[in-house]
Design a protein that fits this description.
Among the domains are: 37 residues; 70 residues, no CATH class. The protein has 2 helices and 6 strands. A hairpin with a 2-residue loop joins strand 5 and strand 6. The termini are far apart.
Length: 157
Amino acid sequence: MGKRASRQNVGRTRVCVSKLIFLGPMRFILAFLSIAALPGCVANNSFVGPSGSQVHSAKCNASPQGCYREASKTCQGSYQVLDSESHAGGLLADILPGPVTWYGMTYSCGPSDGRLPSFAFKGQQYSPPAVPQFRSSAPSVTTNCQQYGNSVSCQTY
């Protein structure tokens, strides 16, 4: 009886392994979509500011925490926030207004003045498509009632 049970388990294992191999591409797609939906820093640009010092900018989606992490990583310590903003964008890019909030922060490395970014909302806002409303095409009915003593008479037209 022990041998029969072990053979059945081996057969089940083969079925499970073949199902996992079949679901492999789907798992990769789901993994990619879940990683894409995570908040993080998408862009980090550097340029020389008017004072001649290096200025950095970070653009992150879904949470300003990605901008803070990117600034700390780039500067390897303290930094000063020069400007910040937020705007509506899509899940993977902020080309058109969409349901995801994108955060942008410009900063320079060095001692901080202690001012936190405000991430004031700028630009277009996302407004979802309107829900169609259907009106009833039934004719309107009017009822006129009159009372004389204890009796009431009504006319509907």
